[in-house]
Amino acid sequence: MRIPPEIIDRGVEDYQTSFDAMRRFTETRDVDTPDQLWLVTHPPVYTLGLAADPAHILDAGNTPVVQTDRGGEVTYHGPGQAIIYLLMDLRRDQPGARLFAREFVQKIEQAVIATLAAYNLSGQRKPGAPGIYVTEGAWQGAKIAALGLKIRGNGRTYHGVSLNVDMDLTPFDRINPCGYAGLVTVDMKTLGSNAALPDVQRLLAHQLLAHFTH
Are 123 and 112 in contact (CB under 8 A)? Predict the structure, then answer.
C-alpha cells in the first residue's frame, strides 16, 4: 500500500513561485522523501504547456503568461479555483505503491468526480480531452476541472489539477482553453453550489489521498 502523501497548504502564492518550488522539490528529493500534495491558489495567470500554441491566447491583456514544462495547452488560473499540485514518486519501491502514468491520471480524475458528487454535481471524463466535464443540465459539456502534469523519466511528478469553484470565468473567454476554440468553462457556483473554496480544496485533497492509498 502506498504511504499517503503529506498535505501542504501554501495558501495564495504567485504562480512562478510555486513553479520554481515544485521543480526544486523534485530535483532534490530522494527515495525516502515523502510525497506531497500542495494546496494553493494563484493570482490571475495564463500558463502554457510544453506543446502549447501561443496563438491560443487570444488576448492576455494585463494577465501574466508563463511558459511551463507540464503537458497540455493553455489554461487560466485565478482566485476561486482549487488547485492541488501532486509531487509524487510513481515508482516508489513499496508493495502495491507503483503507479503507471495512465492509472495516475485516472485516479486524479476520479477524485475530482467524487468531489463534485459530494456537492450533488456530476462530472465525467471526455476521451482525448483531459479534465472533467459537466454531464447534465444547461452546462452539459462545459469544462469544470483541468489537468496538467509533468512526469519525469524517473517517475517523479509535479504540476496537477485545478477545479473551478467560485471564480470570474471571463478570462477563459480570452483564450482557447486547452487549445479548443469555443470550449465553454464553468464553475461550481454557476452550477448552483455555494461551497466555500477551502472546503472544496480540502475535500479534493482527501479524495486524492483515498484514491492513492487504496
Answer: yes
